[in-house]
Amino acid sequence: MKVALPHPERFTSRHIGPRPQDIQDMVETLGYASLDALIDAVVPEEIRLRRPLALPKGKSEREVLRSLRALAGQNEVFRSYLGMGYHGTFTPQVIQRNILENPGWYTAYTPYQPEISQGRLEALLNYQTMVSDLTGLEIANASLLDESTAASEAMWMTEVIVAKRPAPAYLVDQACHPQTIAVVRTRARARGIAIRIGPADRFEFTPDVIGALVQYPATDGLIADYRELCRRAHEAGALVTAATDLLALTLLTPPGEWGADIVVGSSQRFGVPMGYGGPHAAFFATREHHKRYMPGRIIGVSRDVTGRPALRMALQTREQHIRRDKATSNICTSQVLLAVMASMYAVYHGPDGLRRIAERVHGFTLLLSTALRRLGYHLVHDHFFDTLCIEVERWALPGIVDAARARRINLRALSPAHLCVALDEAVTLNDVADLIAVFALDEALPFMVDQLAPDVEPAIPETLRRTSAYLTHPVFHLHHSETEMLRYIRRLEGRDLSLTEAMIPLGSCTMKLNATTEMMPVSWREFNRLHPFAPRDQTAGYLRLFQQLRFQLAEITGFAAVSLQPNAGSQGELTGLLVIRAYHESRGEGHRKQCLIPLSAHGTNPASAVMAGFDVVTVKSDARGNIDVKDLRAKAAAHAAELAGIMVTYPSTHGVFEPSIKEICRIVHDAGGQVYLDGANLNAQVGLCRPGDYGADVCHLNLHKTFCIPHGGGGPGMGPIAVAAHLAPFLPDHPVVHVGGPQACGTVAAAPWGSAAILPISWAYIALMGWDGLTEATKVAILNANYIAQRLKGHYELLYSGDTGLVAHECIIDTRPFKQSAGVEVEDIAKRIIDYGFHPPTVSFPVPGTLMIEPTESESKEELDRFCDALIGIRDEIREIEAGVAARGDNLLSHAPHTLEQVIADDWSRPYPRERAAFPSLSTRLHKVWPTVGRIDSAYGDRNLMCTCPPVESYAS
Amino acid sequence: MSSIPTDLRYTKDHEYVRAGADGIVTVGITDFAQGELGDVVFLNLPKAGDAVTAHQPFGTIEAVKAVSELFSPASGSVVEVNGALEGDPAAVNRDPYGEGWMVRLRPASTGELNDLLDAAAYQTLIGE
User: Fold this and answer.
1) Cβ–Cβ of B66/A939 closer than 8 Å?
2) Set of chain A residues whose Cβ sits within 8 Å of the Cβ of B86
3) So what's the ipTM on this one?
4) Is B52 left (phi over 0), alpha (psi -120 to 50) or beta?
């Protein structure tokens, strides 16, 4: 035999579903000689990249893990008492292993199909209940991206609620976290809101003021009473937003009780590692009467067809995908995985456990304060929870910081004469002793640390001590043993369909493999325990990884520079547009504010444009879903003087490579505009064509689609942007850690590199695949989509295809004719697909009454066939209705999905057998995914809104 | 087939207008419109005394997955709002021409009302 010197294992063949022989067979089924011939027919020649990407070849999993270990080894995990919204925490191991590291949780998609999402919907309802209880406000959403963006969402919401004022102003307490001030300032500028920063006790509610933002406790630890401030604000018709800390609220009077209208913050310290900045779940709560203005996803209780309580996303008409340019936010995702973790942390500890943790943190802070006073230090504030602000002689400050470093401790220098120390759940008595030694400058202590045990009054003012109960619902009391906790997590997981069960062919979502190797580093302490504002010399491994990732993404997109800051696709859009705006302003063309957006664009595009301060000009689509070039030319000419740019998705939202893309870019450039390319469909382009080459100026990348970050059941995401050289100076900066360009457009996220802890996933994917594997993946993604389109021919009409009759990486099938022929709606087909054991494709986007299917390269031919067989089986069921064999309105589709309870009920009066209802295919007999509730009555829930855990009795019936 | 009463007038945006003896008109959305929207879950309506402008939105109507603006058939002022819809938005689906009425307006002039469609013209518009 011949000895193979390089290891024969190729990761590419693990990532890509179809085997080589399958690929050949599928290509031939489509009538092409080779995969390359098919690709040549799909991707227009004039935009093709006819050279390999300048990236290394793919490496084995072992090699990549070794490289990642080496990078991790260059990060140093100090004890960071820097605070500013990021704190050490213990992730309960039962949560780490069974949620964070469990593909049953992290590979699910946003709960668009509630019948197979009841598990995470329940966890999110727990999250909303937890936030609502702790903040003292009636209604909370299912999380936002980070605390700083949540604060700016609150400002926008305030602007909408408070009747329009000609030149609105917004007050921001100078004691807010610096990153929050920066993000709020950036967003306010885009919307023409004046920001006034100053001390909260001197706020003046003049008639132009719409609202105010305070931090409670403040960034330097102060706990202040804002009751009087709220009274004055409300008298003037303004709203008050409080940014706060959930752990502190177990001991402090919640903002809802002292008058705040909106409460935001981060739930990171509820068991989610700091991760060098994220991902974490921010929270957002408000009063009942403002609910229709609240940004983000809201989970609500409704009922299913049998009247049983069932959860689903509520009040969706608020959202950008429906309201487009009239939306009050461009947010289209949550941080589901992290919100689930935080809610489980509360379930695990319960109210008493959380209070004990808070009291211990506060106790250590008291102990430290006593020691520091005994050492002769002056503390700036007498009232605090976990953060002390210490006055230090200017000459002594650097020495103290260095002494801390020597003990592997990071302290925050608030000013040249002030240090802040923020303690957390992970702090031990030894840590406190170390801190005291640091401040004693290693002199002998005049006291014993363990004898300082604070038999002292809490440093929380009497008037701000919490008296109200929280987390009284049984769910927060029943799962405190690990056995109960484990079973609760498993029970919820079992209600959801994730990639561990079947393909999730959601068009525009790219549900590809999230390989185990790629996920490994997320749990490593060198990646997940770092504070985002830790000094750079402790994070060399991360910085190198960012540098390489930026280079890789720039090469893949054909651009010059990349910002990793935006932490969702929608944030990427907003950032890209702010960059374009800053570019025009730098050239004295700040009046360019008209943004062209095709009718076929995703609703987030127009919503983002409005957030960036642009006016939306809609461009028509032609009959085939392409941009109507004639209309574009006319609109570009008509608005040439004020044209900021165009937002275009490529391949189009209809899943087609438009041959006119170069011309579209040229028309916009000729009119003085910039081209923003929505990278949602980048998975069809990697290695085949590059936005930077065919004329775009900026694009965002959904790392959670194309680059393997798992969807987490509806977040986290990452939306870095790549820009051409002329836009690089305007990339976003950060007030604490220097990043971005010299003429930065502002700050768009709380952390300098967004959700840093998940960037190793994308880095690993690129390293594993290499230029060869990445390009191969794109080709197979296109092949898989075309194979599905081909197999469904004769059963369903394909809505759009290119000149050659081929699609890109997704295809749309038209189900509208069945309304007439069989009384079947697209919804009925989607729900019936659940009975067959699959997640339905995207429903009614981009065209109402259609299904958009995106298989990705990771699905094998067997799985594609199984899925096509299911769709064809459903088509046969429709034919039975058309032929009059099955009854209109009382058939397998109209009652889908079928729960176990329904099909085994003693009473069965349906005109079809139970067996066909539950086991429509052979594969469902081998493995059945049961929906746990029947079809949900969404209207009932929206008419009777309930967004916290319902009383237990309601489940009894 | 949607119901299109012959004694009413219609806008191209699917509002109906019922003329009262006192010059005040009652406005709601047509049976066709409620069918297209699906289950109505919320209405945002003006207050009595508010001014409205012809062809401009006077409110919004929300179904589970759609939101639409409501367009005023005439300029004038709002005399009365159907407060019962707040607790029972489904009345718009159940009985669009009866219980599901939205506002009563006092038009500033009768001119704009003359431009409205009659039942036959509205039927042609929706192609049923």
Assistant:
1) no
2) none
3) 0.84
4) beta
